[in-house]
């Protein structure tokens, strides 16, 4: 699997991401029983304006976008750090290593990574824990949604 930086200002790329995002977050909303996930309200223009970096994996012959990861970089003391804002995988390719490959790739680029996900999103929690992330805290958004806040550090 080849991970590449996506040119999100391209209308075709932004449209592909938006379609993938709507499908994935609709599935997640059902899984966590919380229909008001903010990415479901995001427009193509907002995707095109994302201030960070978006990496992606395409299928054979660059025909289909299989997964993307949105990263916002920042300096955390002397460390090069980033937040995983969104990790999205095509449902037909779930549990095929796409999400894991994207996370592993960004782990080679940063010393510290942060991410949050719903306490009810067992597949995402499992993915992050298997990649070495540790839960730092939990944040109650409302009575239906609690987020787990994770941190990963490169100790090498």
Level of helix content?
25-40%
Q: How many DSSP H or I helices?
A: 4
Unreliable spans: none
* Structural domains: how many: 1
Widest beta sheet: strand line-up? 1-2-3-4-5-7-6
* Main sheet specs: 7 strands, mixed
The gyration radius over C-alpha positions equals 15 Å
Work out the number of β strands: 7
CATH superfamily: Gcn5-related N-acetyltransferase (GNAT)
**What is the average of the pLDDT values?**
93
Report strand %.
Answer: 35-45%
N-C termini distance: 25 Å
Report the order of strands and helices: EHHEEEHEHEE
Protein name: Acetyltransferase (GNAT) family protein
GO molecular function: acyltransferase activity, transferring groups other than amino-acyl groups
InterPro entries: Acyl_CoA_acyltransferase (IPR016181), GNAT_dom (IPR000182)
Keywords: Transferase
Characteristics:
156 residues; alpha+beta; Aminopeptidase; 7 strands; 29% helix
Characterization of the model:
The chain is of the alpha+beta class. It has a single domain, classed as Aminopeptidase. It is 29% helix and 37% strand. The chain contains 4 helices and 7 strands, in the order E-H-H-E-E-E-H-E-H-E-E. It has a 7-stranded mixed β-sheet with strand order 1-2-3-4-5-7-6. It is globular, with a radius of gyration of 15 Å. InterPro entries: Acyl_CoA_acyltransferase, GNAT_dom. It holds the Pfam family Acetyltransf_1. Keywords: Transferase. This is Acetyltransferase (GNAT) family protein.
């Amino acid at each position: 699997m080849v991970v590449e930086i996506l040119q999100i200002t391209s209308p075709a790329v932004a449209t592909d991401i938006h379609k993938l995002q709507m499908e994935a977050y609709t599935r997640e909303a059902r899984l966590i029983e919380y229909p008001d996930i903010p990415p479901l309200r995001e427009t193509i223009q907002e995707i095109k304006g994302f201030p960070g970096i978006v990496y992606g994996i395409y299928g054979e012959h660059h025909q289909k976008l299989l997964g993307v990861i949105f990263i916002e970089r920042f300096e955390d003391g002397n460390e090069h750090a980033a937040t995983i804002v969104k990790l999205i995988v095509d449902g037909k390719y779930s549990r095929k290593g796409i999400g894991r490959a994207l996370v592993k790739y960004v782990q080679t680029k940063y010393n510290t990574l942060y991410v949050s996900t719903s306490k009810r999103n067992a597949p995402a929690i499992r993915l992050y824990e298997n990649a070495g992330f540790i839960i730092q805290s939990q944040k109650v958004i409302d009575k239906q949604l609690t987020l787990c806040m994770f941190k990963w550090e490169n100790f090498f």
